[in-house]
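Q: How would the C-alpha cells look for this protein?
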Amino acid sequence: MDARPALQWYPSDWIRDTRLLSLEARGLWMDMLMWMFFSPKRGMLLDAKGMRIDAETLCRMAATDMPTLMRSLCELESRGILSKEDDGTIYNRRMVREECGRDARSDAGRHAAKVRWSNAKNASSSSSSSSSSPSTVQQPSSKPSVLDRVKGAVKRTQTHPCPYPKFVEVWNDFANRHGLATVRKLTEARKRKLKSRFADWRGEKGGALLHFQKILDAATSRPFMMGENDSGWRMGIDWVVNNEDNGLKLLEGKTVSGKGNEWS
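A: Here is the predicted structure in C-alpha cell form.
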C-alpha cells in the first residue's frame, strides 16, 4: 500500500447519499471511509494485518456503545451506503473500483515501459550487428493488409476485455439508490452495447468504469431521468449504453425529454 496522503472526494455524492442518515450513522461512515483508505486493501474495512474488523473491534475504534453501533450499521446497510462481502467484510464500492482501476493502469504502464526497454535494447543490438556485416539493400516495408489490421484489432480487443460484471455492479448500485430498474440478466444484446461503450470510454480519464459512473452522476441532476415526467419514463441501463451520444449529452448538461429521445 502506498502512502498517498489524500483521497479523491465527491462532495455532491456525499451530500446526496448521507443527507437522510442520522448524525450517528453519518459520523460512523466518515470514520469508516478514513479507515478503509488506509486499509492494506484500500476500500476494505480490514485491520493492519489484513483481517476483517468485527463489530466489537469497530465499536472500540468508533468509541461508541454496541447498540449505537449496530443501529448505525443497520441504517447504513438498509440505505445501500455500505456493502458487504460473503464473510461480512465491509467495503466501499467506489473506493474499491477506483483502486482496481489504478492498479490496472499501473500494470499497463509497467508493461509498456518493459516493452519500450526491450525494443530499445533490440534496436541497439541490431545496429551493432549491422555495422559489422556487409550492407544490404533495405526492402521497402509493405502496407499492412486488411486481414493484418483486423487481426491486430482483434488482438487489442482481447487484451482489454470488457468488464461486463463491473458495469452491472456500478449500474445496480446506482439503480438501487435512485429507485431505477436493476439488471437481472446480462443478455447478448446488452453485452454488445456494453462492449461498444467500453471501447468508446476506455481512453477517458480514469477509464471506462469511472466515466460510466460520471454519466450516471450527471443524470441525477435531471429529474426527468429519475421518472419525474408525465409519461413515467425512467432511465435504464439500455438507454445509457444504447449509443455514445446519450452519455455525452448528459455530461454536457443538456436536457432530455420525450421518453429519452428528445434533447434540448
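DSSP finds eleven helices and four strands in the chain.

Strands lie at 83-84, 90-91, 256-257, 262-263.

Upvote if useful.
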